[in-house]
Design a protein that fits this description.
Protein name: Zinc finger SWIM domain protein
Bound molecules: zinc ion
Number of helices: 5
InterPro entries: Znf_SWIM
Order of helices and strands: HHEEEEHHEEEEEEEH
Radius of gyration: 22 Å
Distance between the termini: 20 Å
Strand content: 35-45%
Strand order of the largest sheet: 1-2-3-4
Keywords: Metal-binding, Zinc, Zinc-finger
Shape: elongated
Number of domains: 2
GO molecular function: zinc ion binding
Largest sheet: 4 strands, antiparallel
C-alpha cells in the first residue's frame, strides 16, 4: 500500500516539475515536505490553507493560497519578503498544486483497456463522443517491411458506460461492445507509461 501511495505521489511530483521546469530540487523538496506533512487543507473551491513550518522559514502559523483567474496567490506575498517573493511561485503554492494533483489522481474514473497486436495497419474507432481515448503504439519488431505493432487504447469516462468499438488489426476487422469498469485515475496514468 505504501508503494502505491509513493507512486501516486511520484506522479503528482512529475506534474509539478513539468509545470515549473525552471525550479530546482530544493524547491520540489520543500513543497513535498509541506504536502507530506499534511499541511494543506482546502478552505473553499479556490482557496486552501497551508500551515506554516518554521523549519522552512515560515514566520506565520498559516498561509492562505487562492486561485484567481488561473493564477495562484499566497498571503506570504504580503509579508516583508513579499516584494521579492511575489515574482516567484512560493512552496506554499507548490504544496497546494501537489495536493490538487494528488487528489485528482485518487478520483474514480470508468475505464477499459484494449490491446491488439497487429501486422501492419491498425485502427480503432470508438463510437461515443463523451469518452476520452488515449492511444499508444509500440513497434514489436525490427522488420521494416512487415512491421508488427502492439496497440493499446485506453477508453475513459466520468460516468459508467458501455461503448461500441470498431477496429481493424491487420486483415481482421470487427466490432465489439466494451463496458467501462470503475478504477482510479492513477491506474490509467501508470498503464500509459
Ligand atoms: Zn507562500
Amino acid at each position: 500500500m505504501v508503494r502505491v501511495e509513493r507512486d501516486i505521489e511520484g506522479l503528482a511530483v512529475e506534474r509539478l516539475r513539468a509545470r515549473f521546469p525552471g525550479k530546482g530540487n530544493s524547491w520540489i523538496k520543500r513543497a513535498l515536505r509541506r504536502f507530506e506533512g499534511g499541511s494543506v487543507r482546502q478552505l473553499g473551491e479556490d482557496a486552501w490553507v497551508v500551515s506554516g513550518d518554521p523549519r522552512l522559514g515560515d514566520r506565520y502559523p498559516s498561509y492562505v493560497v487562492r486561485l484567481r483567474d488561473g493564477r495562484y496567490h499566497c498571503t506570504c506575498f504580503e509579508t516583508s519578503w513579499g516584494l521579492r517573493r511575489s515574482a516567484e511561485v512560493c512552496t506554499h503554492i507548490a504544496a497546494v498544486i501537489l495536493h490538487r494533483e494528488y487528489s485528482k489522481l485518487m478520483q474514480p474514473v470508468y475505464a477499459a483497456v484494449m490491446t491488439m497486436e497487429c501486422d501492419g495497419d491498425h485502427h480503432v474507432e470508438v463510437l461515443d463522443r463523451e469518452v476520452r481515448v488515449i492511444r499508444q503504439v509500440r513497434v514489436l519488431n525490427n522488420d521494416l517491411l512487415k512491421p508488427r505493432y502492439r496497440v493499446t487504447y485506453v477508453i475513459t469516462s466520468e460516468k459508467p458506460k458501455t461503448v461500441m468499438v470498431r477496429y481493424a488489426c491487420g486483415d481482421e476487422i470487427g466490432e465489439q461492445e466494451i463496458t467501462l469498469g470503475k478504477t482510479m485515475r492513477y491506474i490509467i496514468e501508470l498503464i500509459m507509461r
